[in-house]
């Protein structure tokens, strides 16, 4: 049987795309909110975080941003960092670092691009804005597949 070159290219693209789609797993996408807390010298009335934690070709992908309301004359510190808490049902836990551009108060979400940390830096603890005690690659991959975002913390 002879196939046209267009059909051959279409079948090749389908075969190449299928394994990538099957590998796309992660804690997922969603949002979290927190109310009435301080960041630096700013009183934050409300902060909403949006995120997407996935994988592509076996590597983690991290995307996320936030917006906040409060005193419009206040600016959050440029070092503001968010830590998404990822937990599974067996007691596994780690934090994923988000550090998008800091948005102005009472405005839109801050700018961010999707990143891909190494597995040995994907899920960690934290001290301020620094990662600590990161899970080894196999542990991080297992938590990435089975965990979900349950909360977030803000540091600066």
UniProtKB/TrEMBL annotation:
Hey, what's the signal peptide range on this chain? 1-24
Superkingdom of origin organism: Bacteria
| Keywords linked to the UniProt accession | Signal
Stated name of the protein: DUF1036 domain-containing protein
Task: Give the organism, scientific name.
Answer: Alloalcanivorax profundimaris
